[in-house]
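Journal club prep — side note

Before the paper discussion, L.F. wants everyone to see what a predicted structure for a comparable chain looks like in token form. Sequence:
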Amino acid sequence: MHAPQSPRQLTAQVIDRIDAVSAADWDALSGSGGAGPDNPFLRHAFLKALEDSGSVGRKTGWLPQHLILADESGGLQAAAPMYVKGHSQGEYIFDHGWADAFERAGGQYYPKLQVAVPFTPVPGPRLLVRGGDLDVRAALIGALRSVGEQSQMSSLHVTFCREDEAAAMGEAGFLHRIGVQYHFDNPGYGSFDDFLGALASRKRKTIRKEREAIKEYGLEIRALSGHEITHRHWDAFFAFYMDTGGRKWGRPYLTRKFFDLIGAGMPDNVVLMFAEKDGQPVAGALNLKGTDCLYGRNWGCLEEYKFLHFELCYYQAIDYAIEHKLARVEAGAQGEHKIQRGYLPVATHSAHWIAERSFRAAVAEFLERERRVIQQEIAGLAEFSPFRKSEC
């Protein structure tokens, strides 16, 4: 796939592996120098681990085709992590209905282009620009659209991007879609008890009851990070992941090697909530840590304990964020039950370029209706906040 020349003497190129650029150059875009607070999922090490482990690639239907912009001296100025997709799995922004409608009308929806972090419903920058230069960002958006047009694919989707990115892409003809997630905001609590003190009495009692039940099981729960996480822990967590993922999705996405690679390549970003019973692993929840946020990702268990999912995925994450003075916890996709545990609804954003004009018009009409419904849903869900009114 070839990419066109971009303005301001920037050359656009599509690369089929992240190793085609250095980690230092890529991370200068995705870190605080370009795209805001460090998001670990945009790091070179994370994307490389997906590729080197075989979690993404032609066989998985996630073929790397990253778009980069370089200046006259060859210096990397912008990038977007992009993939050719042969399906809509592992995205968490659902377009199966679009695919069905397009193909019923005689079109071919797949393959399509996807700017995303595979299998990762974590909002963050998708247009990675050195120094945040808006002209360079505009050139990157133009290059994305040109790649979409030249590829003759049905569509290009930029999922879980920032709101300002979605707005900028909207000016270039992309369609804006919103969704909803649930995040915990830490205003500076000194302890978990301080967080509980901000809740309405009934909600506070419920959480205390759930956490007391966990203590009665006699489980040992620890938050492990860095070199505290051994091969034994990863073996156990992979077993949790395969068991739970197999029941939920049919085929878990990530390979065993992937966990070794992120453990070795970005150990300070990995936080594993790990539960044992009589020295035997029973459950775990994998998180990644950025500069100001803890991101909940994968969970799994081999033994069922009531409330253990809430403990490992939500309460331990809040505990950790408070202790380490992180501004928020993002607990992943879906789950209105998170509201009662301190995670409030927030909007997520994506941008979609549709090649065929009449299909684009139909999708635009659908998205306009959907946005109104989701905005109303977010406002309505906020009414179920567990916090005392004075804290809202």
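L.F.'s comment for the group: Residues 32-36 have pLDDT under 50 and may be disordered. Keep this in mind when we get to the figures.
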